[in-house]
Design a protein that fits this description.
single chain, alpha/beta, Chitobiase, domain 2, TIM Barrel, 4 domains, 8-stranded parallel barrel, 17 helices
Length: about 775
């Protein structure tokens, strides 16, 4: 028997075997080439009795929607999927990996390490090295160029000179029409196309090329990460880099724990550092466990914490304003934040959460509280009545403040944003929920915005269809939303699965910090719980991890941004790799962590206010107030001051040290010594300073623990003044506090009645 005869028989047996299988069995048993060269078209498998369609690739910039194979500098793995139809039934295939063969060998310089790793690299010989002055040619906007200049100075320590000709520059940022080495895939999403960039390095010059500002932004981040590791050199070679998924997100619950604009700018800078591009900000929310108020005979509508963080003119007939009274952003401030993020490649997605988690809304309109049967009646007060037509009108009126053009500027406050409508964990009537959600999604679309929603339709079944076309959906719980049902319905899907991607700091459930070794080694963006979404399915647009601040109000321990910064940053650097690039590069989590530590924070950032190594601050004020204009200090610091309080006018607050980060208060309104952070968390040390007597104050700042000594002794009990403790008879909380205080060092004695004889601050590194 000849070899040809044997192969023919094997092929016939394979076809017979496959044709006897059902659609799913066939889909997972297709003959897909292990490798393919650019310029080719991926062949479509054929099975008798079955229809097979090419579904897509996770890197559709490399293997396009029709199976066309684009150019690759080096061998590049791409996952592809197929849809199989047989006997009237459809099935999606497993993820098949195809290696797109590169045009060049891997010889030459090794690929520089970045986070996330650059997709393709052709190594050259030699290196480019910066001189004492960096010559920059930048054909982008002035704002972009100014940002890049500042970043280059921060990373290299060199002066930057802008030149008028690319030929004279060390570093060139150049706009190109498109990446010319790939096929033109007309149906590739614009979001993916706009993020591509090239880097070309010779011993004379580094050139970053992209067709959009976002592409140039990502190219500049890769270059800066390389320079930060080398001190000023870049290996010669060429890189081509594109993302796997168009949404690579972080959710911050800014409603239940307030953050400052400065905090959010640092978050944006860090996201951009790792090419994360979607910042989901929860604008309104409230304490979850309202049943605890109800159980103890208290009214959560009057007492529970809630916040709506944007300026609004909405005020109820009862005089209740919608806008939070502790921390909020004006429309102008939030617009500036959106523009700040856009310049850095980050889209802001504001979430307005109704019909549940809507205590801010029901406080304004208590007449619209849901009155029907519900699964958790203790939380009724934060459920707005989804079945009442007036509810949609009310919520639409609120949203119109931000979605309609302003009369003065002609621009909507949220112009360019995806608008998240919330709609999670509603415990009321399913049909009413579906009708309300459908109406809200259509309303947002009618205003010219793309809407996003929490997936909840599986848990809320009914006859009312809910708008899917052009709607993005967070898949947060497979119980509330079956991912496959959502995919088939046409929603654009964002994996936000709570089992793997929810962080609730200092809680006893979900993750206090993500299980980063697991995330790095095993997590896959296209698996939602136990459900597999084809990696190349066009409806899977990305993933988001979430930081939820459930531990507020009756459960608040006083934590702030400092206390969760490492939780945010280490999750961001891990997931950026998994969302953008190949699944693991470098090969182990430990190697990744070492690389992240080497790369460090984004240019110019010092989010933990570290001043270790700085000389002590030592002053003897002759008059007050005294402008120190020193940088604030995070833990660890030791403040020593000799002060003499001469008067305590009733009800007058006396500030000893102040700055944008907060205030050290010698006399609070109750007469005690304490501090107030810029997130409005306020702590009292529980004791008072004597009048007419010089005393020695010592403030010892450590992570999550700030201690005050007066003449060497603790003077009282540290107390969180913002919230009460149900378990302690509704008294102010004193147990288990996290009292991190960033020491402000801008002004001494802003409103101090007395003398500051001396003041000294010493710094050391925070202990991890």
């Amino acid at each position: 028997m000849t070899t040809k005869t044997i192969l023919t028989m094997l092929a016939a047996m394979t076809v017979t075997t496959l044709s006897a299988q059902d659609a799913k069995q066939i889909a997972d048993s297709l003959s897909v080439p292990a490798t393919i060269r650019f310029g080719k078209k991926l062949p479509l498998p054929a099975v008798d009795g079955a229809q097979i369609e090419f579904l897509g690739a996770d890197y559709e910039q490399i293997i396009g929607p029709q199976g066309n194979v684009g150019f690759a500098l080096c061998d590049t793995p791409v996952k592809v999927n197929y849809k199989v139809t047989k006997d009237g039934k459809e099935a999606f295939s497993k993820d098949y990996e195809v290696i797109v063969k590169g045009a060049f060998s891997s010889q030459g310089n090794a690929k520089p390490q970045t986070i996330p790793s650059m997709l393709q690299w052709k190594g050259g010989a030699g290196e480019f090295r910066l001189g004492d002055t960096v010559k920059l040619y930048c054909d982008s906007t002035k704002d972009f160029c100014d940002m890049l200049i500042a970043d280059l100075k921060a990373v290299t320590g060199r002066e930057v000179q802008v030149v008028n000709a690319a030929s004279e520059a060390d570093i060139v940022l150049h706009t190109i029409e498109a990446y010319t080495n790939s096929f033109s895939f007309a149906t590739i999403s614009a979001a993916l196309q706009e993020e591509a960039y090239r880097i070309s390095v010779t011993d004379k010059q580094v050139k970053i090329m992209a067709s959009t500002p976002k592409g140039k932004m990502w190219g500049s981040r890769s270059l800066l990460q390389i320079l930060k590791q080398t001190g000023g050199s870049v290996p010669c070679g060429e890189a081509y880099d594109v993302p796997r998924y168009q949404v690579r997100g972080v959710l911050f619950d800014i409603a239940r724990t307030p953050y400052t604009l400065d905090d959010l700018r640092k978050v944006i800078d860090t996201m951009a550092w790792y090419k994360m591009n979607d910042l989901h900000l929860v604008i309104n929310n409230n304490y979850i466990f309202l049943e605890e108020y109800v159980k103890d005979g208290h009214d959560p509508l009057k007492e529970a914490y809630t916040a709506f963080r944007l300026e609004s003119k909405m005020v109820g007939k009862n005089g209740q304003p919608l806008t939070a009274q502790d921390v909020f952003f004006t429309k102008k401030e939030f617009r500036e934040l959106i523009d700040y993020a856009k310049l850095r490649g980050v889209n802001i997605v504001p979430e307005f959460d109704t019909p549940s988690h809507a205590l801010s809304f029901t406080k304004v309109r208590p007449d619209l509280i849901y009155q029907g049967p519900m699964g958790n009646p203790g939380r009724r007060s934060d459920h707005i009545d989804a079945g009442n037509p007036e509810t949609l009108k009310f919520v639409a009126e609120v949203l119109d403040e931000y979605l309609l053009p302003d009369a003065e500027t002609g621009k909507a406050a949220l112009e360019g944003c995806v608008i998240h409508v919330g709609a999670d964990e509603f415990y009321g009537d399913a049909e009413a929920y579906r009708k309300y959600s459908d109406g809200l999604l259509k309303y947002v679309k009618s205003r010219g915005f793309t809407p996003r929603i929490w997936g909840s339709l599986t848990h809320k079944p009914g006859k009312t269809p809910v708008e899917a076309e052009g709607v993005e959906m967070n898949l947060w719980s497979s119980h509330w939303q079956n991912p496959i049902e959502a995919m088939n319905a046409g929603y654009k899907l964002i994996n936000t699965n709570d089992n793997h991607l929810y962080i609730v700091p200092f809680a006893g459930y979900y993750w206090p910090t993500l299980n980063n070794p697991f995330q790095y080694n095993s997590w896959r963006p296209n698996y939602v719980g136990n459900y597999h979404i084809p990696a190349g399915h066009p409806n899977l647009i990305g993933s988001t991890f979430a930081i939820w601040n459930d531990m507020i109000d009756l459960k608040h321990s006083g934590y702030g941004m400092y206390d969760i910064w490492d939780i945010f940053r280490t999750s961001t650097d891990v997931l950026s790799q998994r969302m953008w690039g190949t699944e693991k590069n470098p090969g182990t989590y430990e190697q990744h962590r070492a690389l992240a530590d080497k790369i460090g924070e984004a240019p110019g950032l010092n989010p933990l206010y570290v001043r270790a190594g700085d000389a002590p601050v030592l002053v003897t004020p002759t008059t007050l107030p005294l402008q120190l204009n020193e940088k604030a200090a995070g833990p660890n610091y030791h403040l020593t001051a000799e002060v003499e309080l001469t008067a305590t006018p009733e009800g007058t607050e006396q500030v000893l040290l102040s700055g944008p980060e907060g205030k050290l208060i010698a006399v609070m309104k109750d007469g005690t010594v304490g501090f107030r952070r810029n997130d409005m968390m306020e702590f009292s040390f529980g004791g008072k300073l004597p009048v007419g007597k010089k005393v020695k104050l010592e403030l010892i700042g450590k992570p999550q623990n700030t201690q005050l000594l007066v003449d060497g002794q603790q003077i009282g009990t540290l107390t969180l003044m913002n919230f009460r403790d149900r378990e302690d008879g509704w008294k102010l909380r004193t147990k288990g506090l996290r009292s991190t205080f960033i020491l402000p060092l801008q002004t001494v004695g802003e409103s101090f009645h007395g003398k500051v004889h001396s003041l000294k601050v010493e710094f050391s590194a925070p202990q991890k």
